[in-house]
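Reopening this one. Same input as before:
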Amino acid sequence: MPAVMILPARLLGTVIAMVLLSGAVRAETRTAHDFGFTAIEGGSLPLSDFVGKPVLVVNTASRCGFTYQYDGLQALYDRYRDRGLVVLGVPSQDFRQELATSEDVKTFCEVNFDLDFPMTEIEKVRGRNAHPLFRWLAEQGAKPEWNFNKFLIAPDGRFVARFGASVKPDSARIGDRIEDLL
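Same output, byte for byte:
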């Protein structure tokens, strides 16, 4: 039988802190609320601000054939925002279809789509240099295959579902899952 080590209470906290700081905490214990972005207009945009609300994270691009989905995303946000839904647009150049700067994206979205849901600065969403949220999503088996992939996050920060680019924001598949979380 292995020996059991009993630590004095004053050392137990130190040992726990060392384990946490060493990165020994498994990715499964993380939630989307552990991540944050820079808002497209500047300033921090921590996902912990959305605790208790479902969040639909969408990797976007201004020059994509699916860009028309901005209208559907805004309509979805308008439909459910009073019940707690957050739609979060994350512009990305990973598929070479985004404008040059975050300011260009912001202006494009305001002028062409009159968007008022939160958006982030341009971010990488694939690969080793992807934003940490998208690396976490990839660990959950949900990485963007193209622009306008949609990732539904539960109010407690758990990953719920990924919807590909061809799934329109007004689809029953998305609406039903959102309704389940509200």
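So the earlier flakiness isn't reproducible anymore. For the record, Confidence is low (pLDDT under 50) at residues 22-27.
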